[in-house]
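seq as requested:
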Amino acid sequence: MIRIDDAVITAQTLEGRLAGERQVEIGPGSKLTPSAQDFLHAQGVEIVRREAGEAPTTSTSTLTPAPAVPRAAGRQAFAGIFCPNIVLFDSQNRINHAEMERYINWLIEAGIHGLYPNGSMGEFARLSQEERRDVVRLVCEVNKGRIPVLAGASEANLRDVLKMAEYYASLGVDAIALMPPYYYEISSESLFEYFAEIAEESPLDILLCNIPQFTRELSIDLLERLLPYDRICGTKDSSRDLPRLLNAMNRLRQQRPDYVVMTGCEEIVFPSVIMGVSGGTIATSGIVPEVIVELYEKAKSGDIERARELQYRILDLINLMLLGVNFPEGFKTGVAARGFDVGPARTSSSASEQEYLIKLEAQINCVLADMGYPVQGPRACPATNLPPIVGR
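struct tokens:
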């Protein structure tokens, strides 16, 4: 019999230490993750629990295996460019299913590596819970398993997060994206317990999202404490902080070499890929998917000159769409410039902001035309004489 006293015992822990043993003694206070329970049940290994100051007790009948976990694409598929797609609305401000289907198919055919509904770009906080379910269901039905789906599951409380994860699992979603709970301030210890409990009960893998612009920061120390929970497969960092991103990769992968680290910032896609990120959830991939996919692939393959050229060429576009207007209306204007009916905004805007969006459309069209895209709408820019970067 072997004894394991780790605070959290995962399947990876057991695989490395059992070495054919048929009994394992679990120390006081140790937690078995769902994957560890699955592993022990499958191997027929007997669990012996010894509480402090007590004789060991043996248990096999009380072990309840965790439910089977659908991992159609597998963790290795979480690489490349995931599009945090916007939601398109009809004239009545309802989800425009037909136009959404056309948009999703267009993204997939353009080469996007994964879809990310109900992220910040998808305005999940402005949708009802039923609408959030509807968006993910629609994405999965249109996708038909062609590429991985990472679905945002940040609900107002832990129970609703798990309910949403269960529903997403029934649709065939590959993993959920989860940010810290917002509005109420909670301690670091409470935040750890929040993620730990979800990790123990979620039927899907979890990508933790660091986006301090909208909620509290996920410290690297906290992410490191959560590493033993193998349901947590990685993190997506939208802090726009390259040194932080590099430090996260360096520390977390020393203990979990397969740990997924994605960037959420297009301005640093090239250096991030060079330094080893798994990929990115990149907003501009919803407007110029061909360019962003090529940028990732060229950086990955070591075509430094082409990757550098593409990285610089997207800066004007991201700056136009990100700055000076209610988020994510600038990006929705960009999607409209590519020929999709985005519908009305889900947030109020002033007359001056609406006027700004009209000017923004003309400026975005200029950048797209410079890139080599056919543009039919208004333009308001000087000739740049820049060579096209698409269609060549």
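The longest strand covers residues 205-210.
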